[in-house]
């Protein structure tokens, strides 16, 4: 599972004294554990798809953080955020390309927006950028 890989990477970062890696890995592991507790209360179990969602959301948060640092000229912090983002991006699965998304949409009987979005959410969760699916579905 991804949580195991991230935990190992966190331990390695601790041993090597890599504070930048430790910071982002610790945050993601903590978010995952909190999410796992919430899911358990609902009778569900956390899995890799949940971890992918957490990593994706964390990347968006890092992008926002980076923008703030760029605006105030804190280049050292920009570099640290870039390093953190690069570190966690490698744990994401390869996302579907536009062509792959178009093929799936064209194979669907019902090409209405709600139907397309539901199909991708149910069958390709964590493997596709849903905003890209929406954009392509509107364009067809």
CATH homologous superfamily grouping of the largest domain: Uncharacterised protein YqeY/AIM41, N-terminal domain
CATH class group of the largest domain: Mainly Alpha
Helix proportion = over 70%
Relative strand content: under 5%
Tell how many strands the DSSP assignment holds: 0
Annotated CATH architecture of the largest domain = Orthogonal Bundle
CATH topology of the largest domain: Hypothetical Protein Yqey, Chain: A, domain1
Category by helix and strand content: mainly alpha
Coarse morphology: globular
Number of domains: 2
Cα(first) to Cα(last) distance is 37 Å
pLDDT averaged over residues: 91
Query: How much is the radius of gyration in Å?
Result: 18 Å
Order of helices and strands: HHHHHHH
Which regions contain 5 or more consecutive residues with pLDDT less than 50? none
> What is the count of helical runs?
7
Task: Give the tags.
140 residues, 78% helix, Hypothetical Protein Yqey, Chain: A, domain1, 2 domains, globular, mainly alpha
Short recap of the structure:
78% of the residues lie in helices and 0% in strands. By secondary structure, the protein is mainly alpha-helical. The chain folds into 2 domains: 2-89, Hypothetical Protein Yqey, Chain: A, domain1 (Orthogonal Bundle), CATH 1.10.1510.10; 98-139, no CATH class.
Give the topology, please.
Layout: H1 2-16, H2 19-41, H3 48-72, H4 75-89, H5 98-107, H6 113-123, H7 130-139
Describe this structure in words.
The chain is mainly α and 140 residues long. It folds into 2 domains: 88 residues, Hypothetical Protein Yqey, Chain: A, domain1 (Orthogonal Bundle); 42 residues, no CATH class. Helix 1 packs antiparallel against helix 2 and helix 5 packs across helix 7. The model has no long low-confidence stretch (mean pLDDT 91).
């Amino acid at each position: 599972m991804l949580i195991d890989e991230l935990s190992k990477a966190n331990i390695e970062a601790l041993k090597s004294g890599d504070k930048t890696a430790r910071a982002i890995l610790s945050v993601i592991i903590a978010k995952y554990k909190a999410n796992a507790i919430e899911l358990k209360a609902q009778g569900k179990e956390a899995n890799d798809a949940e971890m992918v969602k957490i990593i994706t959301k964390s990347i968006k948060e890092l992008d926002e953080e980076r923008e703030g640092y760029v605006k105030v000229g804190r280049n050292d912090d920009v570099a640290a955020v870039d390093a953190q983002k690069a570190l966690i991006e490698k744990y994401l699965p390869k996302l579907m390309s536009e062509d792959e998304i178009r093929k799936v949409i064209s194979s669907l009987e019902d090409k209405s927006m709600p139907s397309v979005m539901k199909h991708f959410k149910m069958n390709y969760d964590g493997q596709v950028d849903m905003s890209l699916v929406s954009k392509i579905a509107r364009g067809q």
